Amino acid sequence: MAEEPKKKRLPDQGQNLRILKRVLTYIKHYIPILILSVLLAALTVVLTLLIPIFTGHAVDELLGPGQVRMANILKICLRIGITMGITAIAQWIMSICNNYLTYHVVRDIREDAMKHLHNLPIAYLDAHPSGDVVSRIITDADTFADGLLMGFTQLFTGLMTVLGTLGFMLVTNVPITLVVVILTPLSILVARYIAVHTHEFFLKQSVERGEQTAFIEEMVGNQKLVRAFSMQDRARQDFDRINKRLQTASLKAIFYSSLVNPSTRFINALVYAGVGVFGAYYAIRGGITVGQLSCFLAYSSQYAKPFNEISGVLTELQNAFVCAGRIFDLIDTEPEPADAPDARVMLNARGKVDFNDVEFYYDPEKPLIRDLNLHVTPGQKIAIVGPTGCGKTTLINLLMRFYDVIGGSVCVEDSDIRNVTRGSLRSSYGMVLQETWLRKGTIRENIAFGRPDAPLEEIVEAAKNAHAHNFIMRLPKGYDTEIGEDGGSLSQGQKQLLCIARVMLCLPPMLILDEATSSIDVRTEVNIQKAFTHMMQGRTSFIVAHRLSTIREADVILVMKDGDIVEQGRHAELLERNGFYKELYNSQFVQLS
Fold first, then answer.
1. What CA–CA distances, in Å, run from 205 to 140, 209, 247, 593?
2. What pLDDT, on the 0 to 100 scale, is given for residue 9?
3. Taking a C-beta distance cutoff of 8 angstroms, is the pair 314, 191 a contact?
């Protein structure tokens, strides 16, 4: 019986408060802009509330036969015009401040997220789809920016409008004001009830959107394989399922959040009707003038309007807090452990590497490497072979300290690599992987990725040694040719040659070649092997190989199986032993009858 999927645990409302406090730590860097925005909001509210008073005075100047005083009305109209002009200017400047504040805060959060991304342990990146990480930094940050901007634009002004109109109404008539105050909590309770219940749906929407982004990125990046295996229909079906879940979550979030406005408008209409009835009663009895009644009606409308806006803001802030929470979850992820306080910088490494009783696993219940001992002298060429999943790549991860050993130690130049700074350790290795990676930019920039200040002459020399110079010169602008993400239209072999040239430019004391010639034709591979032979002279080299023909000249061949080194020696010696290595070799080069 299939196990039911676990439900995602939803954050409580206390988390929103923690997120708000976290956002305030970013806002505090822009306190002057925030103060200016608040002052402008206050000015805008005061000026807006003056207009109903002027309007009420104008109404009183029109009452009674033969009592129309046009001169006074024109003066009042002039005051209204000036007030509206100043209000418009204040709102324009306030909008600039709010946009500046919002997008600088989001920029800072994005920068922190991107900076932290480079400090995350490789284990986190291995466990999370890259599309989900991208969605947090891009899509969730944009959604948070929209909610934050709405908060700055409408929340401050709305709160001040409520307080301002309440004050003006109390000065004018206390009993009518009490009618407004008594009915107002209904609007607040309705808005809060809906906002709380939409949080769950906005969270589901954000999670599903991240999964969709990850799926799209996966399909776009591997479109050739999808088409090669005729899996377009399967991919569309998988996308439709994810899209359907996103649609369901989005519709629920939008539906429940859309209830806020009509609900609060209905209650606000009740407030307006109550003011009209009680105001008319007091006007008939002479308690207020008709102009004051018109002013009161205008205030009741202005008093109610912010509740519509604030309720809408609260709903959007629910979505914004969910998205901000996902970004902060990324930022708060435990980073890669810092270098030890007494860690030294590795200088002039010669290439002496030792594995001493190393134990390692990704899952405690599935041990991978046990009691591994290996001693490499400077300049040796170490080949690592074995079936898939035997631990070859794990060995490389331990060498580069992408993962730390569980037990034992890995030493370089007799120093435990945990006592050496990661930067100096990794700069002592040159790495060419089976999977190529090129950035958007020129050919020159990609080759010089490890040495951005390298002169063109050395870049050209490295490209020649990697047998990449000829195809580079056939490109439209040679070394200044722009290539797209991941190499653009270059062939897989050409991309691999550029990656090899990148390492040849740096020439560190130790090399890691993880099936580095797997995407290159046989003729070019012969030339590359010659270049590698030249490059590896005097340098310790670790060669992960599946094609055993490429490692016949290795000084030591490590044969791995289930995380253990079951055999080691030179090519001829291992064949004579008739062990596991010979079995692997025969599977590639001996045709069974």
1. 11, 6, 8, 59
2. 42
3. yes
How far is the C-alpha of 382 from the C-alpha of 577, rounded, in Å? 19
- Taking residues 24-33, report their average pLDDT: 88
Secondary structure string (H, E, C) spanning 363-383: ECCECCEEEEEEEECCCCEEE
Q: Is the pLDDT of residue 524 over 70?
A: no
User: What does the block give as tokens for 438?
Assistant: 């090129």
Tell me which of 2.102.10.10, 2.50.20.20, 1.20.85.10, 1.20.1560.10 is the CATH number of domain 98-332.
1.20.1560.10
Helix, strand, or coil (residue 513): strand
Q: Where are the domains of the chain?
A: 98-332
Which pTM does this prediction carry? 0.65
The pLDDT tens digits for 154-207 are: 777 777 788 888 887 787 778 777 877 777 767 667 766 776 667 677 778 878
Give dist(CA 156, CA 176) in Å, integer. Answer: 26
Rounded Cα gap, residues 235 and 231, in angstroms: 6
d(CA 415, CA 411): 5
- 284-296 pLDDT tens trace: 777 777 777 777 7
Nearest Cα neighbor of 328 from 13, 8, 16, 7 is 16
Predicted confidence (pLDDT) at residue 89 exceeds the cutoff of 90 = yes
